[in-house]
Design a protein that fits this description.
10 helices; binds flavin mononucleotide; NADH Oxidase; 2 domains; single chain
């Protein structure tokens, strides 16, 4: 079963090389409008989006993420979990003001920002654009907060480099559905499941055949490597969340 929307979703791959063509104002407006129409928790619209066009700020983002190539993208968006706007609307209500600092409302902002970013990714792909979501903006949260003057009750969630693709990378195979879609009850993974072994082989073959950064790698080994990174690299996140007024409950 397919249609143009499903075909767009199924053709997804992250794009990290772009032509020099910048996004037009009309394209940017359309993408932001698509993001605004995404669902939003408790209809509280707790996401703000910063378009980053200042070359000095793009350089800083390149340094923070380690992705200097983002400076060549057609556009860059920063997604902010935002309860600061709602704090202004809530006025002097003590209960409302206190709730805005809760973990619940932090999560709501993160949900809204994440849903908005995927709307822009998909809308962009439907227009022939490509993009890469960047969680690596969290490598230096204090510098990010300072660079973009993020006030209390806001927190940076993700970045997005988007533009006209100058590459067509191979698609990364995903897990067999039997290992991630269950009926009624959660099914713990059996590391000896032959479907996992087959998926490991598929990922090995993907990494051996792709154009860029070929390597010998199974999915199982990739996960071990990913989760063996030094947690100190992002140790400042909890402190920064508290400094921004969250996690007070
Ligand atoms: C929350 C999130 C954060 C990500 N952060 C980064 C990042 O900082 N740098 C990067 O190159 N890719 C990043 N990605 C892209 C993933 O690496 C990519 O989606 C994954 O490898 C699957 O590849 P595909 O998107 O081409 O299918 C991120 C994706 C998500 C969803």
């Amino acid at each position: 079963m397919t249609n143009p929307t499903i075909a767009t979703l199924m053709a997804h791959r992250s794009i990290r090389h772009f032509t020099s063509e910048k996004l037009t104002t009309a394209e940017i407006d359309t993408l932001i409008t698509a993001a605004q129409h995404a669902a939003t928790s408790t209809f509280s619209q707790q996401v703000s989006i910063i378009s980053v066009t200042d070359p000095a700020k793009l350089t800083i983002l390149g340094e923070i993420t380690g992705h200097q190539w983002l400076e060549q993208a057609g556009h860059y968006f920063l997604f902010i979990a935002d309860q600061a706007r709602n704090a202004r609307l809530a006025g002097t209500s003590v209960l409302a003001q206190s709730n805005l600092h809760s973990t619940d409302k932090l999560l709501a902002g993160i949900f809204d920002a994440t849903i908005a970013i995927e709307a822009i990714v998909t809308a962009g792909e439907s227009l022939g654009l490509g993009s890469t979501i960047m969680g690596s903006i969290l490598n230096d949260v204090p510098r990010l907060i300072q660079t973009f003057d993020l006030p209390s009750l806001t927190f940076p969630v993700l970045g997005l480099a988007i533009g006209h693709p100058a590459e067509q990378p191979e698609q990364k195979p995903r897990l067999p559905q039997e290992l991630m879609h269950f009926n009624n009850t959660y099914q713990p993974l059996d590391p000896a499941d032959p479907q996992l072994a087959a998926y490991d082989r598929a990922i090995t073959s993907y990494y051996q055949q792709r154009g860029n950064h070929r390597r010998e790698e199974t999915y199982t080994h990739h996960i071990l490597t990913e989760f063996s990174r030094d947690p100190k690299q992002r140790a400042g996140i909890t402190t920064a969340l508290r400094q921004q007024g969250f996690l007070s409950d």
